[in-house]
Task: structure prediction
Amino acid sequence: MSARRIFARPARFSAIAPYVWMVLFFLAPFAFVLKISLSQTAIAQPPYEPVFELTAGWEALKAGFAALSLDNFRLLISDDIYVFAYVRSLTVAITATALLLLIGYPIAYGMARLPKRRQAVAMVLVIVPFWTSFLIRIYAWINILQHDGLLNQILLALHLVGQPVVWLSTDTAMYIGIVYSYLPFMILPLYATLAKMEPALEEAASDLGAPPWQVFWLVTFPLSLPGVGAGVLLCFIPVVGEFVIPDLLAGSNSLMIGQTLWLEFFTNKDWPVASAAAIALLVLLLLPLLLYERLQKRQLEEGR
Amino acid sequence: MRKVSRLSRFNVASLALGLAFLYLPILILVIYSFNASRLVTVWGGWSLRWYREFFNDRAMIEAAGMSLRVAVASATIATLLGTLAAVALSRGERFRGRTLFSGMLYAPLVMPEVITGLSLLLLFVALNAERGFWTVTIAHTTLTMCFVAVVVQSRLGSLDRSLEEAAMDLGCNPVHAFIAVTLPLIAPAIVAGWMLAFTLSLDDLVIASFTTGPGSATLPIRIYSEVRLGVKPEINAICTLVIGLIAVVIVIASLASKLSSSQGESAALL
Result:
């Protein structure tokens, strides 16, 4: 038996503790979300009517199953607020991801063209803001975008505008915040594929007479698609459920689903509806994931 | 022959603009934290006034203490569990439920925090657990151990396995080989993982809001409630202190990884 296999057996046991932890604190909680999403709202502490108590025995359990209701999910579909929140979440996430791709691609491309030693420095420079607090970075933008903030001061001093522009509490501010916060998530996977790319391929296309835009569009971009896919997914999914950025930077007239969930939970104290919204959000997020997996599979099959 | 892969002016410009975009807002925040003026946007000269205000703000200091304790505790547990998970995934043979295991480890990385927070809270309520330090710590551990696992796993993946095999050929048992050979080699990644877990925990607002109880707010929760009421210069000072703390953490983490690369070089020289 090779040493590798002997090593493998005890290594397997090191999975036990983290496995148990994740089942307890990641997987199991979803059972409770599901259970409460099927319960009735109640004006009490906790603010929901328990569907069944496990301590009450089999008969109570059976009665509980009979009482399960899909009312909360029906409410989600029938109430415009939720439907709008879903549509808005998707719109914001798609727009923001497109912006991130447009802004992140040239930066990643620039990084990949740097001399090797400089590339490492550039990568550290891109990662460092990710280590800096999320909330602080959003707060930094409030400083800049508010009514008498730095941006308006500069615009006024340059006589580009006659009076202060309203930036805060607009979609523009929200998109700035999202792009700012998620840019490293887009740049890093793009950079990873662009840096691995064989420069000879681009040179060959260029030698054969392709102008730069054609080299980019026909050679570079298609080869970077795995990085594009990873970056898009890494940004799209968390943005759909985003709460902090739209809450602090966007106006309050149209909410995203993450905000609606938060509001139902903390302000309206309607736990069952909040849980139902969480489940619906999860389902919404599974779609792009499945699509991505299918595309990857197809790419693998085409590669053969 | 025309070289396309050369660094063009466009590349340099986009890179410079991108980095300026990433750093300027933070820089502006830090500069304004030393502003003497009460108005956040009017420059009234240099002053440490807002730092003094922060150190006199009892509620903020308590929240900062809570955040630091949670961050240290959750980062430590997360590093332990995350490292074990990374070893199992990169060194262990196939085991039952391995797909589920790696799925559970990667899911929290992209999952919206409102869902993670809500689901954990409902669990704690169902278990009738008193919410406070420990519930936040457990919640943060669950999130950050996934990041630790990814960091440590990538280091394990790039390790030369013949070193472990050599140790076993020389009579080490697997556990001994791991402790004597593998562990020192991945130690910098473990340190970096701890640092990452620490800063993520210090940073988290959403999950902490769901899992904490009355009277045990963390620093981000306090900052958030202040920011919602409007910009206060004191917040600039707190944010600058947090940025400073994180900068120190990054320097230590990068020293650790430098140590690992120089170790790698000396190993290659041997």
